[in-house]
Every structure is written in C-alpha cells, then in structure tokens.
Amino acid sequence: MSISVAGLTKLYTTQKAVDDITFDVKPGEILGFLGPNGAGKSTTMKILTGYIPQTSGFASVCNFDVSKQSRDVKRVIGYLPEHNPLYTDMYVKEYLAFVAGLYQLKEVSKKVARMVELTGLQVEQHKKIGQLSKGYRQRVGLAAAMIHDPKVLILDEPTSGLDPNQIMEIRQVIKNAGSDKTVILSSHIMQEVQAMCNRVIIINKGKIVANDKIELLQRINPTQFIFLVEFDQAIRVSDIEKIATVERVRKMNDTTVTITAGSDMRNALFEYAVKNKLAIKTLQEEKQSLEDVFHQLTQN
C-alpha cells in the first residue's frame, strides 16, 4: 500500500480531532478525502506528512513509519497545504530552484523546466510570485510539491477560492500529475471530487463514516438498485416482476417503468427485451448526488 493508517487518533487536550480511523490507499489511486470543517481532514493529512505527531495509532507512507521515519516520508511525499505558503518576493523559477535545492536535487534547471511545463507556468515563469493570480500561485505550489517527483501527493483544498476556469485548469494539472502517483485530495467542491477521484472517504467528527467508490456511495440504498427503463413498446408489469431479484415495479406510463431490484439486473433486462422483441430506449440507474450523500452522513 502507498498509504496505510490503522487506529489513528489525535487529541488536543481532551478534544479528539481524529478518532481511531483506519484506511489504506493503493498505488496510483486518487482518493477524495471529504468532511465538514473541523472534521479532522487537515489533521490527518498533517500527520501523514509528518508535520504533527499522532497521539496513538499507526500510519505509514510507502512503508515508512510517519512517526519514526519522518525524513524518509518527506522524500516520498509532495504536500500542498490549504494555505499555500510561498515566498512572494521570489520569481517563479527562482522559487522552484530554491525548493529543488532543499531536496538536494541534481539537474535543477531541467527539473524546474519540467515543472513549469507540467503546471502550465510558461507565460508566468519570469514573474515574481506576488504578481500572480491565485490560480497561478496554486500552480506554483503544485510545482513545488512535485519537483522532487514524489510517489504520493497530498493536496489540501487545492482549488479553494479559485474561479471556475482556474478550477478546471488546476483539475487538469492534478489529473496529469496523478497519472503515475498516489493522490489524497481534500475538497469541499463535490464536482471536483467526482471528476478526479476513484474513491471517497468521508470523515465526520474525527470518525470515518463512508469509504467506497463514488458510484457505490451514490446508490440510494446500498442493498438496492433502482432503474428507470423506457421500452419502444407497451409492456406488462407482471412480466417484469417475474425477473430474478426484482423487488418492485412502478409503472410510469405504458412503455416506462421504475424497477427496484436486489442486484444489478441490466443484463436480465436486455435478455427480457430480446426475448419479447422489444428495444430499450432508456436505461438509467437512479442515484443521489454526492452532495446528498455528504449531507446525509455529516448533518448530525
């Protein structure tokens, strides 16, 4: 595993910011890490980067123990915190060369040029960071986080405060960067999570309340599938009710029904259509939005 967390807990006096959480992240996975303000997201990320110690539990990054091998962890991690710290009086290329020097990298000029190209900083590379828009400052932060070619990227609210165009640009940068890295991405923008992430963890009051693929989290009931089906001809509800795992059929009109089933029955529906010489015009699984799922799991 790229990241492994077991029983992780962080106390601030008597308050549990992180409460006995356990999860793994596989190599190459882009994980969305969601939760309301104060849920424990940033605290967990800071522990994984070695920025703060855990109170108890275990965490490792690329098989390095974050509490005992923090230097090794920092070598394999690229971290962009929520409040992107930059030296605004430095020029873009100067700053990236400075960060490369901190990592004691060789061929600094080549690595800086590669990051400038990857993050789309070509036009702004000769400007001072203080002259850049927030979107370009985020690009500089990403470039600095990736300049040492880390195996793991941890990004805390990377699109916070950006306009829609800037968000799309940063999203593409992250997707390009994440093609060969493991990424943990924290965001309050659900569309960003849906566009970029393979899996989502939702944390609330320090505890994990969901950990699954997005499409499974969006299912209205985890044990049920609900399909809206439109055929090209009138159908009999009683025939569909005989299909295996069908629990309920609601007729919308002569050709359209909503089917509740205990399993994914799309293949069975196609077989039913072929057998009865019907064509399926529409077949759509009904799901909640990720915002609805988030609200249900964190509102209390």
Q: Helices and strands, in N-to-C order?
A: EEEHEEHEHHHEHEHEEHEHEEHEH
**CATH class categorisation of the largest domain:** Alpha Beta
Tally of separate helices = 11
Which percent range fits the helix content?
25-40%
Mean pLDDT: 90
**How many separate domains?**
2
Could you name the ranges where pLDDT drops below 50 across 5 or more consecutive residues?
Answer: none
> What percent of residues are in strands?
25-35%
In CATH terms, what is the architecture of the largest domain? 3-Layer(aba) Sandwich
| CATH topological fold name of the largest domain | Rossmann fold
> Largest sheet at a glance?
6 strands, mixed
Strands in their spatial order, largest beta sheet? 6-7-8-3-9-10
**Whole-number radius of gyration?**
24 Å
Number of strands: 14
How many angstroms separate the termini?
32 Å
CATH superfamily of the largest domain: P-loop containing nucleotide triphosphate hydrolases
Indicate the overall shape: elongated
Structural class: alpha/beta
